[in-house]
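WARN retry 2 of 3 for item q-0093 after timeout on previous attempt; input resubmitted unchanged.
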Amino acid sequence: MSRTINWGVLGTASIAKGQVIPGMMKAENANLYAIAGRNSNKVKAFKEEFGFEKGYDSLDELLEDEDVDAVYIPLPNNLHREWILKAAEKKKHILCEKPLVPSPEEAEEVVAFCRKQGVILAEAFAYLHNPMTREIINIVREGQIGTPVLIEAHFFSKKWPEDNIRLRKDLYGGCTYDLACYNISMILQLMGEMPCQIDAMAHFLESGVDDYSNLFLKFPSGAYASATCGMCSSERATRLYVHGSEGTVETEIAYNGEGELSYYLTKGKERNLHKVQVPSNYMLEIEQFGRCVLGEEAEPLVSNAFTLQVARIVQEALKKIGYESF
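OK item q-0093 returned
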């Protein structure tokens, strides 16, 4: 294999067009090789706009192409499992949008199958590659604010039209599936341990999906965390507070933000602003995954073990709020 990864994109979703494909274009070890979708006009438009070498009107056709090294899956949540298994069967390495699959049982299944096939599988939490995110995680893990006492993580998006894919229960929509996984993943990265108690509450739309939820986590170390999310705001809003025994970290965390981002570190009477220059998280994600495929790094930053941890917490939270689609 060359030092460049031939990428195939399975689908023409907005996340692929607006974020991930532009990230691939910036990645030093990535080549935009093939795009596939069920809408031939969209496939043609993607091919022309981004310069893919090949375009396929069938996802299966792309997987049959022996020159494809890795695939990115931005399909609706209910299709992830099917196409992860199909891609792994064809020996393609796989980067799949979150949530990887709807349940921890399915996560265990696809992880085991990918290992059997000898391919790398990673869940696309691009924001975890963010230099500011990594800096905050290291501050907490190194004990710079003492022992974590309480973490508050909030993520709200705008209201979506009723027919939006994010609000369809048959496609595993709702804010807990779509947004809470950000909060949960960040909290787990900060704590480095699984919670010993999970409680949750939510508000449901007539369609049966939740447009607001609040998760409460208790950890063996004695720390607590609150993960609040909703698709009920007039605008996108994110916030993170990490309260420690000796200080606090706070930021309007820009999940997948780019440019100059900042956070505050407070210890005693000193409250200092820290600024971090952040490139495209999607570029960083693609490059790190590519290094794993090329054997230059051991495993993706978002490991399969971590994906399973997040999936187990999400499922328990869904049970607590009464969302019975898992």
